[in-house]
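Cross-check.
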Amino acid sequence: MRERAKFIEQDLKVATSGQRVRRDRARWATLAWLIASALGISAPAAMPATAYGQALEPRAYANTPVGLNFALAGYIYTQGSVGTDASVPIKDFTVHTNGPIVAYVRTLDVWGQSAKLDLLVPYVWLSAKATVKGLAHEREVSGFGDPRVRFSVNFYGAPALSLEQFAQYKQDLILGMSLQVSAPGGQYDSDKLVNIGTNRWSFKPELGLSKAFGPWTLELLPSVTFFSDNNDFFGGNHLAQDPLYAVQGHLIYYFDFGAWVSLNSTYYTGGRTTVNDVQNDDRQENVRLGITVALPLNRHFSLKLYGSSGVYTRTGTNFDAAGIALQYRWGGGF
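Predicted model, tokenized:
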């Protein structure tokens, strides 16, 4: 990792006592969390597994023949701004990220129902700029993001089928559920506010509902994300975060030649933080819209293009994201 400049120096120290100190600590902790949240904003709308942040992810519970393997290589670019509390002396805070993501998916037969196991690892180059107390600051950092694993299973409407059996399958209503786990394996430096990793675990249970209407499919995905505590947060402080509640909606249209397009949306709220028993006024409430286009190239390869943008932000990040992904599938009779 190489840094061109320090973003915020160590003179932003947490004092030891007093009500004023506690208020200052809470203000800077709010800022630190907002910066950290900026590192989890981008998410490819077409990934087979949820990437970092609040992903716009269509077809997460679509039925697929068992025994298939999917390898995916993608590239994501995001740019946006971070809104901060008026009491915090920071202005014009912008963040740019870009980098590759690799993922692997295996389709499974779980008690006669279709299921998937997803593994994902991102690598990120990040650039952040801001004006702090009237002075311009910049930080550039690169490294791996937190790795993610997700297990999903459809318990209604999507039986486990071989490739030959799948040729006769026609979707009606699918109900499923999943659990995504993020591990603290990404780049992290507790002396810095800007990091790529989060130095904590997260657990995201989700329900999936997918209903087909001819060539159209409507999806609804409610979820909640729970966070473990970060006991080494910016100078050895203790960070806790409330659950983050979200719901995704997708409207998908399938073409006869195998391509599909999806209009995507998500709403999430919650995630209020507490640092050293000081609760911050940083509850999130965000709305995002996006689009995904998938094009089959041949029997094994497909290409996905995706983009999304924030349309409403109460606290935290307001950003645009775009990406491309090439997917290769094999096994299961292919």
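Residues 1-18, 36-53 have pLDDT under 50 and may be disordered. The radius of gyration is 21 Å. Passed to J.P. for a second look.
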